[in-house]
């Protein structure tokens, strides 16, 4: 059975004594509604540490829309059972009140990397993410923290923050776990209707269409992005928010794909916002 903590000082005490005993701690931050993508992160965490902590917290300050926050799936009982099964040592599930008590007014900000993509669409989102991750890092005192490449920009921002602010925490990124039809696993896909779930296939298909365009010899970023855009447009239940080619390190705009380039997508299906990405590698003939 996983130990459960809900108060920052309590888990901090546990973390300090675990460190004193020479144990390595890995943290997997999540917003719950756990799926196989989270479980892959937990497995990786186990390989890098003696003790695995999974945090489950739907962080209100990273949502820029109240309806999105309210609708976000929550299933704490199942999450705890999954953590037990996965051999997680500690579940850290604080309440919003414990994280943001009356009078809370501090924040952590990463600037340039948070400007494009999801940062441009969801104002304040990344400030909410970096602030909560800082609080989790300070409470759990991990040696290692594991994140998914599915949220590519988030991973880049956290790596930057961990390095810039001398957290001394190794940040590990793991590849996206997908359904057999290519859709990235995500807590939000639980909110899709059956038709929406079918329509959502356009997201991985759009990524594949862009990769195919590159494999055919196209190197202009606009033309490659256009292949993805057109694939989304064939699906009437889907609405594109962005399809952009970016430098994987700086997230700056790329015009010609002559080096590995990130293709990032945000698509609304059925009122649910889905994000996905893939690396486009020039010279890859069979993407
Ligand atoms: P979330 O609970 O959606 O905030 O995600 C918690 C962590 O799981 C983040 O680091 C995500 O990038 C990661 N994650 C979410 N979906 C997947 C997936 N399909 N494959 C791998 N990691 C994922």
Can you describe what's shown?
The protein is α/β, with parallel strands linked by helices and 287 residues long. Helix content is 39%, strand content 19%. It has helices at residues 8-20, 36-48, 66-71, 76-85, 96-99, 118-121, 125-140, 152-164, 194-199, 202-215, 221-233, and strands at residues 3-5, 25-30, 51-56, 90-92, 144-148, 170-174, 238-246, 261-269, 272-280. The strands form two sheets. A six-stranded parallel sheet has the order 1-4-3-2-5-6, sandwiched between helices. Helix 8 links the parallel strand 5 (144-148) and strand 6 (170-174). Helix 1 packs across helix 7, helix 7 (125-140) crosses helix 8 (152-164) and helix 10 packs antiparallel against helix 11 (221-233). The chain is globular. The termini are far apart. It binds adenosine monophosphate (AMP).
Which structural category do the helix and sheet elements fall into?
Answer: alpha/beta
Helix and strand sequence = EHEHEHHEHHHEHEHHHEEE
Number of strands: 9
In DSSP terms (H or I, runs of 4 or more residues), the helix count works out at 11
Cα distance spanning the termini: 43 Å
Low-confidence stretches: none
Task: Give the rounded overall mean pLDDT.
Answer: 97
Radius of gyration equals 19 Å
Molecules bound to protein: adenosine monophosphate
What helical percentage do the residues reach? Answer: 25-40%
Overall shape: it is globular
Strand content: 15-25%
Main beta sheet strand tally, sense and closure: 6 strands, parallel
- The largest beta-sheet arranges its strands as 1-4-3-2-5-6
| Oligomer status | single chain
């Amino acid at each position: 059975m996983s130990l459960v903590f809900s108060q920052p000082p309590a888990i901090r005490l546990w973390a300090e004594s675990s460190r004193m005993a020479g144990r390595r701690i890995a943290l997997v931050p999540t917003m719950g509604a756990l799926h196989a993508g989270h479980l892959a992160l937990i497995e990786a965490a186990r390989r890098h540490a003696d003790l695995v902590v999974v945090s489950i917290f739907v962080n209100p300050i990273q949502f820029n829309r109240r309806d999105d926050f309210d609708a976000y799936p929550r299933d704490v009982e199942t999450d705890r059972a999954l953590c037990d099964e996965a051999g997680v040592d500690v579940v850290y599930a604080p309440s919003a009140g414990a994280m943001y008590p009356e009078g809370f007014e501090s924040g952590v900000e990463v600037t340039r990397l948070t400007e494009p993509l999801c940062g441009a669409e969801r104002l304040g989102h990344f400030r909410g993410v970096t602030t909560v991750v800082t609080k989790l890092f300070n409470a759990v005192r991990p040696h290692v923290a594991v994140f998914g490449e599915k949220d590519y920009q988030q991973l880049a921002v956290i790596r930057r923050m961990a390095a810039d602010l001398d957290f001394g925490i190794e940040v590990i990124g793991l590849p996206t776990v997908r359904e057999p039809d290519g859709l990235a696993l995500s807590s939000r896909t639980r909110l899709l209707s059956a038709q929406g779930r079918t329509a959502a296939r356009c997201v991985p298909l759009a990524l594949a269409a862009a990769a195919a365009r590159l494999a055919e010899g196209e190197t202009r970023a606009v033309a490659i992005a256009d292949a993805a855009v057109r694939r989304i447009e064939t699906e009437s239940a889907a609405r594109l928010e962005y399809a952009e080619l970016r430098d994987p390190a700086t997230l700056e705009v790329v015009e010609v794909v002559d080096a590995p380039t990130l293709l990032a997508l945000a698509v609304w299906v059925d009122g649910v916002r889905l994000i996905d990405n893939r690396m486009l590698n020039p010279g890859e003939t069979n993407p």
